[in-house]
Give the backbone structure.
Amino acid sequence: MKRRKFDLAATPGKAAVGVDDRFAVATPLRKLLNKVFPDHWSFLLGEIALFSFVVLLLTGVFLTFFFEPAMTEVVYDGSYAPLQGTPMSAAYASSLDISFDVRGGLVMRQMHHWAALLFMAAIVVHMLRVFFTGAFRKPRETNWIIGSLLFWVGFLAGFTGYSLPDDGLSGTGLRIASAIMLSIPVIGSWVTSSIFGGEFPGTIIISRFFIAHVLLIPGLLVALISVHLGLVFKQKHTQWPGPGRTNNNVVGERMFPRYALKQGGFFMVVFGVIALMGGLFQINPIWLFGPYEAWVVSAASQPDWYVMFLDGSTRLMPAWEINIPIGDGYVIPPLFWPTVVLPGILVGLSTMYPFLEARQLKDRKSHNLLERPRDAPARTAVGAMAVAFYVVLTLSGANDVIADKFQISLNAMTWAGRIGLLVAPPLAYYVTYRLCLGLQQHDREVLAHGVETGIIRRLPDGRFVEVHQPLSAANGHADGHGQLDYVGWVVPKKMNRLGALGPAIRGFFYPIEKPVEAPVSPGHPPVEPRPEREEVGSGESRH
Amino acid sequence: MSPHTEHQASQGPAPLDVNDPKLTRFDIVREGARRDDIEIVHYEPQVLPGTKAERRLTRVVAGFFLITGLAATAFLAIYIWWPWQYEAGRGGDKFYTPLLGFTLGVALLAVGFGILTWGKKLLPKEVSIQDRHEGQVDSEGRTITGQTMLYMADELGVKRRPLLGISLLAGLAPVAAVAAAPLVGGLISQPHKNNQMFTTGFATAEGGQRIRLVREDGRPIRPADISTGGQLTVFPGIDHGVSNKHADSPTLLIHLRDSDAQESRRANERIGHGDYMWGNYAAFSKICTHAGCPASLYEQQTNRLLCPCHQSQFLITDNARPVFGPASRRLPQLPIEVDSEGFFVAKSDYTETVGPDFWERP
């Protein structure tokens, strides 16, 4: 029998033909490989959130193998000696086991917690980037809404997650959550009793939170994240203005190979940073808090950072109780306003913002070019106002710690927060607005008169003037140089940016080969030096 | 012929024949990009093949990958052989988690930096421009899809046969309710079962048996157990009285100084609670009326009780009235006395609702 010679080199090609015969994927795959992505460091923030979410899924699955979501009382007999013999819930005991009796369990638990904090932080910072650059405008309003919802779903994921260990700290958080539900007018007691299966704490809340935390909420997150990414893909990413960039194109790199390689590397870096934090920085040491007991709490019990703004709003709320004198009398407790109404308003305002702004500006166009924050002073100032509001609330969530560490009266801190909440946002609006205008003005000034060189020249009549380096070549204008139009991107303001400084010579101990040209990044278009630089003129002298 | 070629023909140069043997591979790549409306306008290698720079970068990337291998191996070695089980004191087990995190982090960071260096430094730089087709409305497509959908609606004929629509709605509405019913019905729980929101573990047992105040370990308390100015968390002396089953029962028993006790009694009398104290002893619910945290920080000098969760402050000598912070209601007071054996008992349950406020609280 004659054996056919096996040609190894031709195998991948044959296999590819075989696949394409069956699935006809060649052309769609080419489109995918070719898709162009614009590049800028600020576009990576959302990816940190995405990558943290992947780490959350991986570490979370590991934790489910060992966690027991039950509130049945057990007596701890694990290896953590200080708690041996203590009656506690099975949930808390199994969380201790993950920390002490599962090999490598603690590093997984801490990575999971750090990844959650990073996930929420990346969402917030990404959201700020999208807001301040106007990336939420038509046609991307839907993605903005999904992004805002992702924050709140992530918030729920975090809260249900850190409630699971049933330790002294998280039990107090659950207690407050039950009080928040109780405060809802008319249906509050029914909602609470239905969720907790009776009076607080009941015996079922941990298992209900568990299924919400490991199935319902992650499912929702996966769905929202998929749509979010799908829309970015479909609508194509926004880009900064710059040479060759228009509202109608995308200037950047094709997805493969370089862009994808950079993404893969970045994922590993995020993963690595989370691993370092999970190993080196202790977080939520539940064994120090003890099991939850309704009568034990310590000072400085703070929730995770993304919940702190609601804690702050609760602390600042004056004791305004509304009594409705009908029948036996009904009550709307003060807790209702900062914990139910305020988040409701925040969700509404944030999701509606793109439409509110478009309506205000009568803007129906599609925008694929980003705006620098200074070029939209009103929006930037509104954003600063929101940030100020949030920061005051978050700081107030830690006002007891601040009062303690800085020896300030606690009541003074509360009053500072109450006043700050009213004063700081308008102040932030005003200051930001003026800053934006000032920056705009400076950009125009540099475009018109040139860059300050730092060279002072004495004129024959004794005056001193600073010499300016104009940005455009002479065009027969009376000034000796032309004026440039502002195009929505960085205006060079230092001589070094004009190539006055030679490119850096690379090499750690000794130079490697010849000095290379200044790096060309799509985000920072190269600025050509003027052909002849001897003609340094004074910016002032033409007046 | 794919639609792309037609599209290209209308706006650009004629498509290349990709089977032309004279074309380089990059020519074909560029042609493929063109068919996706992408123009590769700038494509420049960062390091030339065979140069010192290329060899150096290759070594750097390879170095990163080797570090990954070393760190990952170290991780495995530590995972297997490092003492990991908890021991009291400063044993080597305290370094187990940090070492795991460190080696894992280094392994991942090194592979990340290796890939990043590879991508950023070794691959050619490019600038490509892809058309967005912004504002190019496919109005014909809109018309066709719109008409197709309207046609489908016509075919269904709901307009002509309204009974179909009505009956479908009438049929499906209860089905939706059926889907929701088990969830709502299963979860819903009557909040006022056994009057639970208005009673605590101190409610007098059947037969008029009054409930003792006990410590965390279940022992009853004599007046002499608390020194002047001191305070103690007490619980109902019933089964599971100390546990979370009676999460609204923890109570703070305070032995007031003479002058403070007099002030407290006067305040008690003002609201008709004249007989709630026993001697200089007063007992208040520890569950904050704001959000239910234990209001547990008692300041002896000012007789204020502070809740550490949201900093509500209650003035004990004025019926535990809230004097600062978000709480709007005073802490309920437990009427107490000493029984024939000399132990503290609750005269009755709390006469006001314990714990955070809610709508139907009278």
